[in-house]
Amino acid sequence: MQELIIDNTWIRLLLKGDRKTIHTFIESYGQFMYNVCYKILLNTSEAEEAAQDAIMKALKAIESYDIRSSFKAWCYTIAYRTAIDYRRKIKYTSDISTSIDIAHPSKADDEVNSNETKQNILSLLSHLDEEARTIVSLFYLEEKNIKELMEITGLSESNIKIKLFRARKELSLHANKYFEKI
To answer: Which of 182, 116, 2, 139 shows the shortest CA–CA distance to 147?
Structure first.
């Protein structure tokens, strides 16, 4: 995703409902917001629906965006909270999706290995509670730092560190059980 230059003019155009600017916003941040939702919901159709809701919420709340902060983090927070709300609303029961989108298609063998690896990771992550899975995904897969996690989740630094520690411990336990079977 090419990072847009977000300025007051761009925000004003979004507020006015400029179609070209809205289209640019959706093109630039739609897939990103979908990915955030998918990591929480683990279901393609539910993630698509939650991402669409998140995009609409972002467009409606654009006036609350603080130009001094990261626009991407702001969008991330909206997508994250929308997916959490969506999950609560539908009383989501966790199941691993069998279809995993591959960002960059390659050789058939690589695709199979990539699918297996992703499924194994998703399987391990499914043992964590929703909040821990999200924090682990943000920290290790999205490479967010503790400060960004605090902004996105609203949790304190110590709480995030404790949740990461406990999640690593639980993942290690389940990974050991998995490898004992092999």
So the answer is: 139
CATH assignment at residue 59: 1.10.1740.10
**Sign of CA pseudo-dihedral 3, 24, 14, 12:** positive
What would the pLDDT profile of 5-44 be if each residue is shown by its tens digit? Answer: 777 788 888 888 889 999 999 999 999 999 999 988 888 9
Q: Is the pLDDT of residue 92 over 60?
A: no
- End-to-end alpha carbon distance in the chain: 38
Using alpha carbons only, how large is the chain's radius of gyration in Å?
18
* Total of domains in the chain: 1
This prediction's pTM: 0.57
Supply 111's token pair. 């695709």
